[in-house]
Amino acid sequence: MQLDLNLLLALDALLEEGSVTGAAARLHVTAPAMSRTLGRIRRATGDQILVRTGRTMTPTPRALALRETVHDLVQRAQVVLSPDTDVDLATLERTFILKWHDALAAAAGPALLHSVRAEAPGVRLRFMAEAGSDVQDPRRGDIDLEAGAATPSAPEHRHEIVGHDRLVLALRPEHPLNGGALTLDDYAAAEHITVSRRGRLRDPIDDALAAQGLERHVVAAAPTNVAALQFVRHHDLVAAVPELVSRPLLQDLGLRVAPLPVAMPAIPIQLTWHQRYDNDPAHAWLRGRARAALREAAGPGDT
After folding, report:
1. How far is CA 302 from the centre of its chain?
2. Of the options 1.10.3470.10, 3.40.190.10, 3.40.50.2300, 1.10.1740.10, the CATH number for the domain spanning 94-144+278-298
3. Is the pLDDT score of 198 beyond 80?
4. Which of 18, 134, 148, 300 is deepest in the core (most CB within 10 A)?
5. Residue 194: helix, strand or coil by DSSP?
6. Cβ-based burial of 99 (10 A; exposed 0-12, middle 13-18, buried ≥19)
7. pTM for the structure as a whole
8. pLDDT for the residue numbered 85
């Protein structure tokens, strides 16, 4: 039985891209050539693999069952055929794309850049906003490393929790609620600003208050923690922000911190990357430096 291992590379690209055109672009071949390769894969597997549904291609159940196995085989083959698994940091030239929550980028980004520049001066870090409209798509692995609270749902994503944070209340020193015991009723009656990159005026805190028969008065929404705290600095507003990663900014702005008078779950700090980078030594090095920077921002005991 003769096997064409190039079909595995093509099948891996087809299953990840979900289209003949996308797979062709990834492997630097023409779309007709990739279409012919898909035909060979169909004959070899006895399955359609991808079927057209309207303007898109949908994987068959057999394709979904094979996806992780195929990708793992391709990754293993690349490791076997690579001449060296080490990376020379002194000569490494690469730009990493990081999609981080703004609070994490502000709290841990400077330390990460410092350590990266000290070891690999040819490496550049491109931080992107979570709501960026860039063409890079983390589902395809175009984003090198994400950091935030969300747990990825895609099976091709790896993730690890590197720390935890909690929400606290930020307010300016002149705020009427500053300095005294803050009751739940006082908190609900205050004027609030939410943090939402989509401008939402409601978040899980409202659900927790509603469970106790209370409703807060939200007057504004800001896209980032930095913007929200600037509003708090100049107005009698209160904002719920992650304590550990916002601490340097809270201190710089001279804002006060109070415990949130409603119970909310701890916030996980997660690193997420595409499985295609599992065996990439340069990416593994970056993950280690990012992990250390985020843990330093979260503080000892919070990992």
Report:
1. 19
2. 3.40.190.10
3. yes
4. 148
5. strand
6. buried
7. 0.66
8. 60
